[in-house]
C-alpha cells in the first residue's frame, strides 16, 4: 500500500511524525480524506475527529480542535491548536468539561459568552465522541 509522510504538530508537542496510508480530517468545508500522492492543498481545519491509517497497524483516532493542513510532495502537515489520541482522552474530565460548558452557555449574559461556551461544548463533545469510538 502506498504511503505518505505525515506530521501532526501541536504547540506543546509533535503528535506524530511518520508514514501513513490514509488520513481523514474535518475541514471547514467538510471531511477530507488524503492518500499518497494527493494533489496540493492548504485548508483550515475545525473541531472534529481525525483518523490515521497505517500500512501494518490498526488505525488511530484523535480529537483535534482546529488548525490547518498542508498537502504537497507526498507530505501532509497538520498544524493543530490541540490534539489528543483516543487513548489519551480522560473521558470523565471531558464529560465534566461538557457539563460546565452547558451551564456556562445557559448563564451567558452576552453573545460572546454564549459563543465561547458553545465552542468549549463542541470541543468537549468531540473528545467524548472520540474516546467512546
UniProtKB/TrEMBL annotation:
InterPro entries: ATP_synth_F1_dsu/esu, ATP_synth_F1_dsu/esu_N, ATP_synth_F1_esu_C, ATPsynth_dsu/esu_N. The keyword Repressor does not apply. Keywords: ATP synthesis, Cell membrane, CF(1), Coiled coil, Hydrogen ion transport, Ion transport, Membrane, Transport. It is found in: Cell membrane; Endomembrane system. It comes from the Bacteria. It is a peripheral membrane protein. Residues 91-127 form a coiled coil. Residues 4-81 form the ATP synthase F1 complex delta/epsilon subunit N-terminal domain. GO terms for molecular function: ATP binding; proton-transporting ATP synthase activity, rotational mechanism. One of its GO terms (cellular component) is plasma membrane. Residues 87-132 form the ATP synthase epsilon subunit C-terminal domain. Its main location: membrane. Produces ATP from ADP in the presence of a proton gradient across the membrane. Belongs to the ATPase epsilon chain family. HAMAP family: ATP_synth_epsil_bac (MF_00530). F-type ATPases have 2 components, CF(1) - the catalytic core - and CF(0) - the membrane proton channel. CF(1) has five subunits: alpha(3), beta(3), gamma(1), delta(1), epsilon(1). CF(0) has three main subunits: a, b and c. This is ATP synthase epsilon chain.
